Amino acid sequence: MSREAALILDRCDELAAISADPEHLVRVHLSPEHAAANALVATWMEEAGLSTWQDAAGNQCGRIEGREPGLPALLLGSHIDTVPDAGRFDGMLGVLLAIAVVSRLPRNELPFAVEVVAFSDEEGTRFGTALLGSRALAGTWDDEWWNLTDAHGITLAEAFVDFGLDPARLPGAFRRPEDLVGYLEAHIEQGPYLEDADRRLAVVTSIAGARRFALTMTGKAGHAGGTPYDRRRDALVGASELVVEIERLSKQQHVIGTVGKLEAFPGGVNVIPGRVEFSLDLRAEFDDDRDECLRLMFEAAHSIAARRGLEFHDHEIYRADAVVCDLDLRAGIEAGIRSTGDELPMAFWSRAGHDGMAVVAVTPIAMLFLRCKGGVSHHPDESVRQDDVAAALDAYEAAVLALAG
Ligand code: GLV
Ligand code: MN
Ligand code: MN
After folding, report:
1. How many secondary structure helices (H) and strands (E) does the chain include?
2. Where does a domain end: 319, 338, 361?
3. Same domain, yes or no, for 173 and 34?
4. Which residues pair with 348 in a beta bridge?
5. 278, 302, 319 - which closes a domain
6. Could you tell me the residue range of the domain that residue 251 belongs to?
7. Which of 284, 242, 275, 235 is nearest to 259 (CA)?
8. I need a surface site. Which of 33, 131, 138, 151 has the fewest CB within 10 A?
9. Confidence of residue 1 (pLDDT cuts 50, 70, 90)
10. Which residues make up the environment of ion ligand 3, defined by Cβ < 5 Å?
């Protein structure tokens, strides 16, 4: 039914038009664009027959009942926030596939209710820490987050109020484990393994654990001409050495380390950088490997700093441990993939983070991956094939029905 897949892709385009920047897709947590996207997604949910609400954390939700009202719910979801200069499928495609699945499901027959959740903040673009929507749902909120600030100095608590939400009501977003049967998410792979194997769909075995840090290297600013090399304490040269060491150690230890942001201060062409602020994103299949590599990176950071007369400081801004997908839910996804004619579904771990990492605190999780062009993601070139979307929709629906059976 490629008409449904075409509609899903059209809707990805419509959502991509809701951006803070007309040239580059960016839609962050609790922004006016987030509100507009929630409203649009709610209309699509209602068209598909779901009753809708926005929860106390800004997640857009919808529900159909099972064979009797009030049964525990199978959650289907993904996120509708984006990274800066994003592609149009990371997150959004999973939400739209979930709505399309529900539009196909029988009403008042299933042994569970089905809910769709469009999570408000998976990426952490605005406040630095990620999974805020799903952590509210999972009841793992940390009240220290209320004081996180965005680039304009607006606190998370203020952003809630500006969005029309009440921080005091946040606990209302919590979902009790006894009201849930599980969480499924469909997502583009964001890597090349499916395409390289010439396959369309995969079942996810686990999700990589990640830690993120705000790092600072501090030296002393000074005149770019007048300061001899033996008197310089150039923070940018020290940070650069560390960035290269982070890549070397990541490869050596089989973890994935990325410095995605770096800013030198005071930032003059003729001024030696006195301070550098940069980020570290570190992931691995196993948390112990990640943490051991981190120890080596910080050891290297302190020795580079000592050799160059600099000071190194780290501040952890996000941590999510690796999560293993539930075997029963995985079996449902595998059955779904098999129903599309793929007898031996590909299975591998997700290098990317997903809302399931938070949701697992209240209910078991599993994921369906679909191929994306070149494995490209977190980039406007993200691309999927319409026939892959159609296959993912069939597999997703069949997975839900397999779990119902
Ligand atoms: C989310 O996309 C992440 O893995 O950073
Ligand atoms: Mn992402
Ligand atoms: Mn995503």
Report:
1. 11, 16
2. 319
3. yes
4. 204
5. 319
6. 209-319
7. 242
8. 151
9. low
10. 90-91
Q: Do both 9 and 56 map to the same domain?
A: yes
- Residues measured by CB to lie within 5 Å of ligand 2, the ion: 90
- For residue range 147-161, what is the model confidence (pLDDT) as tens digits? 999 999 999 999 999
Question: Computed from CA positions of residues 350, 355, 360, 364, in that sequence, does the dihedral angle turn out positive or negative?
Answer: negative
Give per-residue pLDDT as tens, 19-42. Answer: 999 999 999 999 999 999 999 999
Residues 151 and 279 in one domain: no
Q: Give this prediction's pTM.
A: 0.94
- Containing 209, the helix (H) or strand (E) segment is strand 209-218
The residue count for the chain? 405
Q: Residue 377 C-alpha to ligand 3 middle, in angstroms?
A: 9
Q: From the CA of 353, how far away is ligand 1's center (Å)?
A: 4
Phi/psi at 356 (nearest 5 deg)?
Answer: -55, -25
What are the phi and psi torsion angles at 176 (to 5°)? Answer: -75, 140
Residue 243 and residue 390 in contact, taking contact as beta carbons nearer than 8 Å: no
Ligand 1 pocket, mutate which of 354, 367, 372 (most atoms under 8 A from CB): 354
Q: Which two tokens stand for residue 155?
A: 């606190």
